[in-house]
Specification:
The complex is a heterodimer. Chain A is an alpha/beta fold. Chain A has a single domain, classed as P-loop containing nucleotide triphosphate hydrolases (Rossmann fold, 3-Layer(aba) Sandwich). Chain A contains 8 helices and 7 strands. Chain B contains 12 helices and 21 strands. In chain B, strand 13 and strand 14 form a beta hairpin. In chain B, 37% of the residues are buried. Classes of the chains: A alpha/beta, B alpha+beta. Chains A and B meet through helix 3, strand 3 and helix 4 of A and helix 12, strand 13, strand 15, strand 18 and strand 19 of B.
């Protein structure tokens, strides 16, 4: 009689065979140009999926990730949209050259951000849509109905756009990948090249669809 | 023009006639109830002398040859999916309001393009057997009133002028409210809204106020948004099974019309079609067709399917048919070796306009730093159509964590020790300072009004977090977080 682990393994294999779309391996997406994030996601932000990046501490490095993403998409000549829930992006903090492929949406409230993201994710012209909800009122975000997230996930599914949701605490229900930045940067890193700052970021995978996929693949 | 309502008058009857070719051009009536109690609910224009509410026996005597049918839920569901698909081609925020009626949030859409699309969809759906009426206005209620008057498209520009002559029944008054207003001699929406709202409220209560707001077209509501189609498939069971290709092709045309619209609404085209004939002996006949060019051209699909069906011989009659389209992104434009332009320029600019309608014209675009050292000085410009290659390594490569601004900056009290910030108090940030960098001093525009001078520090708090402080005019502010 097979043990429980063998039964679970057989069940996973069966599910992987029946629903290959659901068990799609990460990768083939957009490189974040941050080694820890690309490694955690198996190559980069997955296309057609949501990835949540939680900045759990102040100065966790979320904005540095965004700056690196601007650089990597520009190098790949891809278009990126930033839906900025609290209007926090500072154009002066990144080189001018890295702004020319960016469409920046400066929102005043989370509902504006969700409405704008809903439109841009369906557009088809963007490689990455970043929905930055850091700085938005936590109690307002907590009231976001699950159907809003579900709608966003469905909009991304099957498309070629990678969606990165930046939050301050875990927010997106049933998100395939949730990465957490929980070590604050210090002022000592102010003199280091930004690439080095990004390379030293500590990223913890709280939820990883890639691990589940590997398990499914046996 | 914020909302549009798409509706089909006598929807159940239209759906039935659309699904059964034998009913075209014939006198048909839908009935509900059984036996002598059966009553006509909807009637085709060919049935002279028959009106809704008439007993079925009386309908047959008044119009010999009339075909009486019950409602067909399958045909209605298929027709409603076609209607929803048409709505999604206008805008992504669509509510499936009721069977045969959809409401679309058009905010941000280009008015002229939306109007042209509405006329096109109305003509297409009329050709597909659904005589569509589309009304557009500032509120969902106003759009629904316009849809009821449309022939086939009506856009309300002058709200007052449009509403004034409409009968009171458009605003759905209760029987009691209608009787009261009739007693006052009021029979139109204009007559009701000519009364002061406060006086109506005093005499008729909350219900009266809501009725007044609906009559004035002011009332609004939140749309319950529907999901666009994600699977592009259709299936039908024949009762009785069929032996020839005509009924198959008729049904496949209906499927293709709906699936093509669903694909367009979701921004896809079909690259492959899969046809399955379900046979009476419980076997099936399957065939996949890779289209020569991915597209959503119904006639092209039917040429492929019809050409195949003409050669098919099956062992048993066909009891059902299923059509599935495999979606793909449209090859809107050929990309050159060095060209990374827009894949779908029309969609790109339309969506930029929609987002601008939500957040404001000046709050969406590509940021371009201004030619000044003033902090946070930038302009928003129209995004470029192509992404240029990197211009080489920057002269001043970025260092350190990236600033995320607080707009507006947070006021804070700063205690200094040896000329440097030592403690922050008040406002949203408090704590001792562990390390500092600075100051960086800048000033400009001193030769004209609006001169500025600022002293900037970067501080790391004992509790964690690196922030950028600015001293200007004697006031300290937290400009943002180095993140």
């Amino acid at each position: 009689m097979p043990g429980p682990s063998q039964t679970v393994s057989a069940l996973r294999s069966l599910l992987a065979a029946r629903f290959p779309e659901k068990s799609r391996r990460a990768g083939g997406g957009v490189s974040a140009a941050v080694r820890a994030i690309d490694d955690a996601l198996g190559g980069g932000l997955p296309a057609g999926r949501l990835t949540e990046l939680v900045s759990a501490v102040p100065s966790g490095g979320g904005q540095t990730v965004l700056a690196r993403l601007l650089a990597s998409t520009q190098a790949a000549r891809q278009r990126i949209a930033l839906v900025d829930g609290s209007d926090g992006f500072a154009p002066g903090a990144v080189p001018d050259d890295m702004l020319r492929h960016l469409v920046w949406v400066r929102c005043r409230a989370p509902d504006e951000a969700f409405a704008a993201a809903d439109i841009l994710v369906r557009d088809g012209n963007y490689a990455v849509v970043v929905l930055d909800l850091r700085g938005c009122a936590e109690r307002v975000l907590r009231r976001t109905p699950a159907s809003t997230w579900y709608r966003l996930q469905r909009a991304a599914e099957g498309g070629s756009v990678a969606v990165l949701v930046q939050t301050q605490s875990p927010l997106v229900p049933a998100v395939p990948w949730r990465l957490v930045l929980d070590e604050p940067l210090s002022l000592a890193s102010a003199g280091a090249p930004r690439e080095d700052v990004a390379a030293r970021l500590a990223v913890r995978a709280e939820r990883s669809h890639a691990e589940a996929t590997e398990a499914l693949a046996g | 023009m914020n909302y549009a309502v798409l509706c089909v008058p006598d929807f159940a009857l239209c759906a039935l006639r659309r699904s059964d070719p034998s009913l075209c051009g014939r006198a048909v009536a839908l009935v509900s109830g059984e036996g002598r109690r059966a009553r006509v609910t909807e009637v085709s224009p060919e049935a002279q002398g028959v009106a809704p509410g008439l007993a079925s026996t009386l309908a047959m005597s008044r119009c010999p040859g009339i075909i009486l049918r019950p409602r067909d839920p399958g045909a209605e569901a298929e027709a409603h999916r076609l209607l929803v698909a048409a709505a999604f081609t206008l805008a992504p925020r669509v509510e499936s309001t009721s069977l045969g009626c959809c409401t679309v949030d058009l905010r941000g859409a280009d008015r002229r393009r939306a109007e042209a699309l509405m006329r096109l969809r109305a003509a297409e759906l009329a050709g597909a057997g659904l005589p569509l009426r589309i009304g557009a206005g500032e509120t969902p209620f106003l759009a629904s009133y316009a849809a009821r008057c449309a022939e086939p498209v009506l856009i309300v520009a002058d709200t007052g002028g449009f509403l004034a002559p409409l009968p009171l029944s458009f605003a759905d008054p209760t029987t009691e409210e209608e009787a009261i207003l009739k007693g006052w001699g009021i029979t139109t929406l204009g007559g009701l809204t000519a009364l002061p709202k406060a006086e109506v409220a005093r005499r008729m209560g909350t219900g009266g106020v809501l009725l007044w707001e609906r009559a004035a077209g002011e009332a609004t509501r939140v749309l319950r948004l529907a999901e666009p189609a994600r699977s592009f498939a259709a299936e039908w069971a024949y009762e009785p099974p069929v032996e020839s290709t005509e009924p198959l092709l008729f049904k496949l045309r209906r499927f293709a019309e709906r699936i093509a619209l669903e694909l367009r609404g979701a921004g896809f085209v079909a690259e492959k079609l899969s046809l399955t004939l379900l046979l009476e002996d419980e076997t099936d006949h399957r065939r996949e067709f890779r289209l020569p060019e991915p597209g959503a051209d119904v006639e092209g699909w039917l040429r492929v399917l019809g050409g195949h069906l003409a050669t098919v011989r099956t062992q048993a009659r066909v009891a059902g048919v299923r059509l599935v389209a495999a979606p793909a992104r449209p090859p809107q434009r050929q990309e050159g070796l060095f060209d990374t332009g827009l894949r779908d320029p029309a969609s790109f600019w339309e969506n930029i306009a929609r987002v601008a309608a939500i957040v404001g014209d000046d709050r969406v675009g590509t940021p371009v730093p201004c030619d000044t050292h003033r902090p946070d000085a930038f302009a928003m410009e129209r995004p470029a159509e192509s992404v240029e290659p990197p211009a080489g390594a920057p002269v001043h490569p970025p260092f350190g964590p990236t600033l995320r601004r607080f707009r507006p900056p947070w006021p804070v009290r700063v205690t200094l020790e040896a000329g440097a910030p030592a403690r922050l108090e008040g406002g949203r940030l408090e704590g001792g300072v562990r390390a500092t960098l600075g100051p960086w001093r800048g000033s400009g525009d001193w030769w004209k009004p609006g001169s500025w001078a600022v002293e900037t520090w970067q501080v790391e708090l004992s509790g964690g977090g690196v922030y950028q402080l600015a001293l200007s005019g004697g006031d300290w502010r937290v400009e943002g977080m180095l993140d």
